[in-house]
Amino acid sequence: MSVSDEGKSLEHAHVEAAYARWAPIYDAVFTAVMKPGRVAAAAAVEALTRPGETLKLLDVGVGTGLELPMFPRAARVTGVDLSEPMLAIARKRVAELGLDNVEALIAMDAMALTFEDDSFDAVVAPYVITVVPDPRRTLDEIARVTRPGGEIILVNHVRQESGPIGWIERWMGAHSHRLGWRPDFPWSIIGDWAAAHPEVTLVGRRSLNPLGLFTIARFKKSRR
Fold first, then answer.
1. Which residues pair with 126 in a beta bridge?
2. What is the CATH number of domain 12-221?
3. Are 38 and 126 in contact (CB under 8 A)?
4. pTM higher than 0.85, yes or no?
């Protein structure tokens, strides 16, 4: 199924324009509602760290860097995002909080990561798969840069298939190009991608507060 077939096509121009608008107010609007997902992602990264070792971590869609202070200092973090206004806020956050484990914050397209294959011990993608024009291509890139034996940690909104919230999500989906993300994003996009990639295995999936609107999913990349 193509992105246009999904009916919620987002172009880079839509995303960049939307997040340029969101950048000045993003933290005020989204800090509380998205905090459980960021905490869950950081806890998953913490569980991967080993005493005396460093963990090379990629944060795809780092945005304003809200989760950066939550990561363990043993994680050496590289963050990427398409939005320069969002990255400017993230860089200020890193400087103000003295986050010396954040090695780089780079403007980069999540659908065309410029890193070599198998570059990172873990990749976390908080609230990004609903934003990109081509979720499957983005997942391909995330898997490519994750080393064998490494872990992929996704935090994402997944639509509810029934009830009033599901109806609202479907209605909002018609305006996704203005919002900058897909409110009616189905789990099947991620599930079908994983089913087509035997090198990745789902090792955990659970709903998060508030109201089960968000999901954390962890995938393991098999060793060769």
1. 155
2. 3.40.50.150
3. yes
4. no
For helices 12-22 and 26-48, what crossing angle results, to 10°?
110
Per-domain boundaries in the chain: 12-221
What is the DSSP code string of 11-55? -HHHHHHHHHHHTTTHHHHHHHHHHHHHHHHHHHHHHH--TT--E
Alpha-carbon span 220 to 150, nearest angstrom = 6
Q: Which residues pair with 80 in a beta bridge?
A: 60, 106
- Count of other CB atoms within 10 angstroms of residue 138: 23
Contact 106, 79 (CB under 8 A): yes
pLDDT digits (tens, 9 = 90+) for 80-116: 999 899 899 999 999 999 999 999 999 999 999 999 9
Sign of CA dihedral 33, 34, 40, 46: negative
Output the six-digit token pair for 183: 């409110």
